[in-house]
Amino acid sequence: MGEENITEAEAALYDRQIRLWGLDAQKRLRAAKVLLIGIKGLGAEVAKNIVLSGIKSLTILDHTQVDEEDKLSQFLIPREEIGKNRAVSSLERTQLLNPMVNVTADTDDVADKNDDFFKQYDVICATCCPSSILCKINNICSENNIKYFAGDVFGYYGYMFADLGKHEFAEEVPKMNQKQESSQQGEECGDGEPAPKKIKKDEKETVVVKKEEIFSRLQSALDVDWSTTEIKTKIKRTPTAHFITLAIFDFMEKNKRRPQLSTSEEDSKQLLECRKMIIEKNQLDDKYLPENFIEHCFAELSPICAIVGGVLGQEIIKAVSQKDAPHNNFFFYNGVEGTGMVDKIGN
Amino acid sequence: MSAAMKSSLSNKLQQNVSSCKILVVGAGGIGCELLKNLALTGFSDIEVIDLDTIDVSNLNRQFLFRKEHVGKSKSQVAKESTLKFNPDVNIVAYHDSVMNPDYGVNFFKKFKLVMNALDNRAARNHVNRMCLAADVPLVESGTAGYLGQVTVIKKGLTECYECRPKATQKTFPGCTIRNTPSEPIHCVVWAKHLFNQLFGEDDPDQDVSPDTEDPELTAEAGEKALEKETEGNGKDLERKSTRVWAVENGYNPEKIFSKLFRDDIKYLLSMEALWKTRRPPEPLDWSNLSDATPSSATQMRDQRIWSMKECGEVFGNCLGKLKVDLAAQGEDGMLVWDKDDETALDFVVSAANIRANIFGISQKSRFDIKSMAGNIIPAIATTNAIIAALIVMEALKILNDQFDKCTTVYLNRKPNFRKKLLDAGRLDKPNPKCYVCSAKPEVTVVLNTQKITIKFLEEKILKGDLGMVAPDVEIDNGMGTIIISSEEGETEENNEKLLSSFGIINGSRLKCDDFLQNYNLNITIAHVEKLEDEKDFMVVGDMAELQAKLEENSKKKEEGTGAALEKSKEEEEDDLEIIDDTEAMETAPTDTSPKKRKADELDCTPTAKKQKKSIGGDGDADVVEIL
């Protein structure tokens, strides 16, 4: 893929990132077709980050309408678009971010899409979806070798999930061998007698090694029974944002929608019920799912979207470019505690 | 829970956010992301300042700008784009340097909070001092590649930006550059010096000819070489400035090439002591350059390694073009090396590669040399987005009267052993000996009073190293002799005079005052004949620290110069010091290497609680260097 050389215009535009991840990574990015499901605050951040990076194409799939909450985090939608379709309203500004990327909008409901639809993409990133849909798409991706990401932001909290299947990647590690890698002519090698004055230590001296990481499906993370003795010990070191996310997933399954500012009073009561259910089911201590999360979990706080969207965007870039170790398999940000952690949940 | 909830923020916090006036310093990589977050979070009274204009290489991350904005003011375009996200925000944009005297203490006092989104240390030092003087909390930030940092500075409560000494730009001993280069960077530095010698500002520290005072040469060997020099075939050109010689020869490519890459190299070979343990250099002949290409010819010009023949041609062409450019500057004109000037870059690429070839050092592509010579720090959208968001998270705590919860946060490349990708730590207390934020700032400067001029003291020490903008200096000798005045014309006649001519000796004290920064500093002069590594001066906290440093230096000396250099390098790495480029430094003709830490090295190091890292800045706009 992407064997064609980078053009002068691309080299100029992407100069500062090519200096970071290299030409090969940039070529791989240029070949990647990405589907982004859901474009609220988090989706907008992800779209911005990956369109700027120079992927081949982005399809924005969202059947919902712009509402008041979008003003708090969705910078790709002009203010006057309330009531219109989110994907369509986001299209123009997303395209302006980078004319070299082919950006399209799709107004269908993701639930109505057949399996073949998903197979045209290299990467699928699902946001704003209930967990049943997230798992369903995850399964399709697994069976078709599509890199899969999911994420969402709830007020001060956010998460990212990745299932890259069996993922191979290259990683630069500091070179241990003192011998000079003689890629160009005229290099003196430390043959036998190490030059007393100079064992060349180019600061950039690294070697690229191939590595592999095995991921698991979202369902297996949701299925973890935290009450079992072998898992219980892990609770203490598991980010609380995970349990908060589970409670909100439960709410979304029951209500077929996210908690909303406009119905926050009523939603809060329901969220407390969901919390209770998660605590009982997993025999959690109260402190791992603190009651006050309901004060901080509405709408999407812009900086939280930027943090989770920044991590998610970079993980997509890593997955596509097959460069650097991916985060396996969750990232959680908790803006109340100020913690941003990577954790492996499920198997 | 209130039914009137209008955002994710509590009502009180929302109130504070919408009513406070804030200053954003910098509208580059971090600044663009920050302005977006601020407008969406409900900030409605924002001022933003940036002196820069938009470049095409900004567009991969500074998303408020588009191709049609190239060349325009960053602050102005950023303001217009931000207003589209939220037209209700009141934004004032200044296309100006924050170091301009128009932005004094009273300007800073207007703000409830200042947020830095800068890319250079000079401006960070200055804003730090202004915020201390105005007693306004400052959120400081920076990114370098995948890494980033955010911290909070509040007078009297936390460390200020200058409480800890920062690693200085890496410099190389003159003899390494002039006589015994062993890494590509040495050749790049040499080539930049050559540019300045031929076309730019004359700086005696940037001599490119063989150095007969190389400490590795025994006195005898040096003399022998000197004898040879005077012996004959008109080698007195060593004594003539390179510039004068080049002008006299009309910048003739063959003559210049032959002097630099043949005759000078032969001369170096005559210093036999240098080549006992090194591979001796091999002089090149202008009329017989190899066209063997070390890399595939299908690659872009920017990416492939040029043959010696190609290097020679480019070198010759550049000499011709630069000669014309220089002439266009008029008499006494000069050129300033700029990584974005194609000819200036080509000149350095060709000269550095020719020299590398001579010394058996691996050649580098034009793309790589641009990074090295221009100190470019790579920069990406995602890191900037995360760091800008973390700035807002700290700001929200300050505005929520939770200053005690403020932290310094690092964005790591990989999670640490506690699973933390974002590693937050408590803010440290001010350093009581800080030469900026302590009650009575004091510092000792080690130098040779018989070699340092007043101008050097002002430009390189007070402004360059100690971060002042417009200092007034008097000798604390009971007579109040003023040696430097910030009023134009008042002390200009002192510029070229030596410190000793004002009676400044070991132990003399200078009272320095920067009115703009509302900053007073007492300097004690420690006179020495000579400093290590050809340094002209050294700033230390106090005499005890000086003593420790001198001892350390003498120890190093025992280990031999080469070993000492290696050692100091490793020490820097242990500090996890990242960085540092910055356009500001690019303009200063210094032997700077793009001392960029490989992020991988960071990864291997478990972040111990007390360990301090420092992240330095994006060559273009984004970065930092904190703590």
What does this 3D model show about the protein?
The complex is a heterodimer of chains A (about 350) and B (about 625). By secondary structure, chain A is an alpha/beta fold. Residues about 180-200 of chain A have low confidence and may be disordered. Chain A starts with 7 loop residues before the first helix and ends with a strand. Chain A has an eight-stranded mixed β-sheet with strand order 3-2-1-4-5-6-9-10, sandwiched between helices. In chain A, strands 7-8 form a two-stranded antiparallel sheet. Chain A is globular, with a radius of gyration of 22 Å. Chain A folds into two domains: about 10-165 and about 300-345, NAD(P)-binding Rossmann-like Domain (Rossmann fold); about 220-295, no CATH class. Helix content of chain A is about 40%, strand content about 20%. Chain B is an alpha/beta fold. Chain B has three domains: about 10-165 and about 380-425, Rossmann fold (3-Layer(aba) Sandwich), CATH 3.40.50; about 180-360, Ubiquitin activating enzymes (Uba3). Chain: B, domain 2 (Arc Repressor Mutant, subunit A), CATH 1.10.10; about 440-540, Roll (Structural Genomics Hypothetical 15.5 Kd Protein In mrcA-pckA Intergenic Region, Chain A), CATH 3.10.290.20. In chain B, strands 3-2-1-4-5-6-7-8 form an eight-stranded mixed β-sheet, sandwiched between helices. Chain B has a six-stranded mixed β-sheet with strand order 11-10-12-13-9-14, sandwiched between helices. In chain B, α5 (about 120-135) links the parallel β4 and β5 (about 140-145). In chain B, α2 (about 30-40) packs parallel to α3 and α2 crosses α14. The longest helix of chain B has 21 residues, at about 310-330. The radius of gyration of chain B is 26 Å and the shape is globular. Chain B starts with 10 loop residues before the first helix and ends in a 23-residue tail after the last helix. In chain B, about 50% of the residues are buried. Mean pLDDT of chain B is about 85; it is low at about 230-240, about 555-615 and about 615-625.
